[in-house]
Structures are given as structure tokens and as C-alpha cells.
């Protein structure tokens, strides 16, 4: 699986909250390791000033707020095992970095393990309710979205 529509949904809602809090869209960037997820995010977001990148295309780009979509829910995520790519993704944020992904997988991937342990230790993990992963909840809430995206 190289795309994750539920993770896309979470990213979409985080962006809505940032925009509602008056963060200019030009100050928000979304990064993902996979081209398939990039395409899914790009089609869901559709904001001309809000940039979406693959990790490889994000090098040299800095934004006030960066959201990283990890996509994978297993520890067999080859691109997430590349410390250079992780470094690029995690260092694009000037003020706020939000990582969206599977904590269980991150704890099994050597390049993410110490970061995952840090966010758990500091209490920075925000779990997504299990109901949000159900297909019907996703479809219902996507249709009822009231934020002007």
C-alpha cells in the first residue's frame, strides 16, 4: 500500500484547523514519501498556495508548518528506513512539525524508533479515534465537511 486515504483525511482536517486558526496556506506544506499518496493529497487539498511534495522534491523547501504523511502501517516501509529522507522531511518545518502515521510501525522502524519513543514520552501523540478508520465514517464525514477547502 503506497497510499492511505484515512491518513489523507486526517491531514485534510489538520489543514482545515490550521486555516481556521488563520495560518496562511502559503505557510503550510505537506510531505509524503510516496508518489501515490502525493497524488491523493494533491487531489484532496486543492489549494493553490498550499504545497504538497514527495520527500525527494521537498529538499531545500522550508515552511512554517509541515505535515508529514508516512502512509505505511507496517514496518516494511523501505522509504521510511532511509535516514536521509527522514532528515529531509523532518527538517523542512520552521515552527511546527506534525507527523501523521502509525505509531506501532514507527516504533519498529529503526530510523523512526527514537523519534517515536520521544513523542510518546513527551505526551505528544494524538490518537485518531478507531471509528475514524471505518469506511462509512470516512465517507460520511468527507461529504459533510463544512470548511471551505
Morphology: globular
CATH homologous superfamily grouping: P-loop containing nucleotide triphosphate hydrolases
Mean pLDDT: 81
Give helix % range.
40-55%
What number of domains?
1
CATH class wording: Alpha Beta
Low-pLDDT sequence parts: 141-149
Strand content: 15-25%
- What gyration radius follows from the Cα positions, in whole Å? 15 Å
Q: What is CATH's topology name?
A: Rossmann fold
The helix-strand sequence is HEHEHEHEHHH
Structural class estimated from helices and strands: alpha/beta
Total beta-strand segments: 4
Q: List the quaternary state of the chains.
A: single chain
Query: Going across the major beta sheet, what is the strand order?
Result: 2-1-3-4
CATH architecture term: 3-Layer(aba) Sandwich
**Distance separating the two termini:** 26 Å
Provide keyphrases for this structure.
149 residues, alpha/beta, Rossmann fold, four-stranded parallel beta sheet, 7 helices, globular
Give structural notes.
The chain is of the alpha/beta class and 149 residues long. The protein has one domain (5-140): Rossmann fold. Helices cover 44% and strands 16% of the residues. The protein has seven helices and four strands; from the N terminus they run αβαβαβαβααα. The protein has helices at residues 5-20, 35-45, 55-58, 83-90, 103-106, 110-122, 135-143; strands at 28-32, 51-54, 63-69, 93-100. A four-stranded parallel β-sheet has the order 2-1-3-4. Helix 1 packs across helix 2 (35-45). The two termini are 26 Å apart.
Amino acid at each position: 500500500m503506497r497510499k492511505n486515504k484515512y491518513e489523507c483525511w486526517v491531514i485534510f482536517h489538520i489543514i482545515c484547523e490550521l486555516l481556521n486558526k488563520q495560518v496562511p496556506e502559503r505557510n503550510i506544506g505537506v510531505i509524503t514519501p510516496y508518489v501515490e499518496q502525493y497524488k491523493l493529497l494533491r487531489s484532496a487539498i486543492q489549494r493553490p498556495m498550499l504545497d504538497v511534495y514527495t520527500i525527494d522534491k521537498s529538499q531545500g523547501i522550508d515552511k512554517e508548518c509541515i505535515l508529514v504523511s508516512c502512509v505505511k502501517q507496517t514496518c516494511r516501509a523501505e522509504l521510511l528506513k532511509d535516514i536521509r529522507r527522514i532528515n529531509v522531511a523532518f527538517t523542512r518545518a520552521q515552527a511546527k512539525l506534525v507527523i501523521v502515521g502509525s505509531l506501532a510501525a514507527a516504533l519498529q522502524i529503526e530510523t523512526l524508533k527514537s523519534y517515536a519513543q520521544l513523542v510518546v514520552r513527551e505526551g505528544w501523540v494524538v490518537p485518531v479515534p478507531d471509528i475514524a478508520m471505518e469506511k462509512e465514517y470516512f465517507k460520511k464525514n468527507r461529504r459533510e465537511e463544512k470548511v471551505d477547502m
